Amino acid sequence: MGSLGPLEEDLIRPAVSESNGTTGKVCNWVEGIQLQQIPAAVKERAKLLILDGIACAIVGAKLPWSRLATDTISKVEGSGSCTVIGWDKSMSPLNSALLNGSFIQGFELDDVHVDAPWHANSVILPALFAAAELWQQEQPSTTKISGASFLLSTIVGFEIGSRVGRALHGSEMLSRGWHSGAVFGPPAAAAAVSKLLDLSPGQIEDAFGTACTQACGLMSAQYESMGKRMQHGFASRNGLFAALMSKEGYTGIDQVFERPYGGYLDTFGQGSQHSEPYLENELTHGLGKDWRGIEGIRIKNYNSMIATHAPIECIAALQAEHPSRFASLDTIAEIEIEQAKAPHAHGGQLIERPVTATGAQMSSSYIVAVQLLDRDVLLEPFRETNLERDDIWNLIAKTKCKWQPQFDEISAWYTRVSVTFSDGYIVRKEIPVSKTMASLLSEDEIRQKWATLTDKVIDAKTRSRLEYAILHLEEVADVVDMLQLLKGEVGAALE
Fold first, then answer.
1. Burial of 443 (0-12, 13-18, 19+ CB in 10 A)
2. To 10 degrees, the CA torsion angle through 101, 107, 111, 117?
3. pTM exceeds 0.90 for this model
4. How confident is the model at residue 8 (pLDDT cuts 50, 70, 90)?
């Protein structure tokens, strides 16, 4: 990344400030972990997750809000040398990470974590892509970043981000109004980029310190704001920025996770309803021995916010069990959606016409109406022309969303849906967790999702080459060559 003067050399420290502290232990693990130490099943899972993240980026690149963001940032910031997925243009490393993260999270199709709600791909992949391109531009032409190195760095980011989230009681952050992934994401991206760039433990500590002080995100963005799509992109950009600054000798906050005043966990733990406002041990317990972080990441099979998935599945089950009752939706008198605190806070809000696609995808009442009417929750219901259908809004007017406190003791995602018909007949369905959250989709299901999402927006040859490269990532000699397949214009998913 360029030669360093005496001052910068002095600032780059090899060791952490406190090796027995939580931050120090995490830094030393990030620096030391090697790909051969990671179980084969974890590596295979990570490649499937990456495949899904790339599919989401391709679909998200030309959505209306993505176009606006890309055009505006291009106008204000100008061009650069890093790939903007799905566009025939390049931008600076930080702006490419911001936009690519926004694309992956751009249409509520991407991954989510069961214990620590964040969207890992939208934070980790864009930061690593930008870091890899920047690094290679400043190195001899014979120096490459391999797919194996990229895979290892991705796994590191996935694992650290998920552990950070669990340390803050995961979904409780949503209940308190934080956009959890935008809070968990910056240190995760910093960890991933630090690994890719082979930073020392001391530099990684600096990167964590600079990343954590940029962590933020308000969940009120879910109502109508285009900014909801971008907040994980902010996290990706901020973590990348932190690692790049650290590489050049810029110091960050020491022991940032455990500092008692103004530290990351102490500050974001304020307002917690738990007797222990944060669980510092979650960051290090079993680190490198169990892989609960990455193993908790799930892939969505519906085009909506994760808290709406259990209501979708309740309605779908009721439609299958009582086909005659749901043959005519005019006979529905009332729909009641009861959920635990976090999913209710996330999706139980009242919505009014007109609604944006963001507001619709974040609303349990809207999504239930879509399932009742269309029996499918994918791309089509969120075209602008479909958002204002009277049939949808008639069903929304009959829907009530309630927080059921007793569900909090059973499962963080417990859901019950009751449908009352005009003759007084009531049908109910309740589930502790949606299928999405219960287990990862199978490899065949993930590959089918990849094919479905990318069909008609990229050509078949490019799709096939990308799929092979991602699923055989350890064999890729130069990950930047793989990234070239994502350059250039893609089709618009909603046109």
1. middle
2. 90
3. yes
4. low
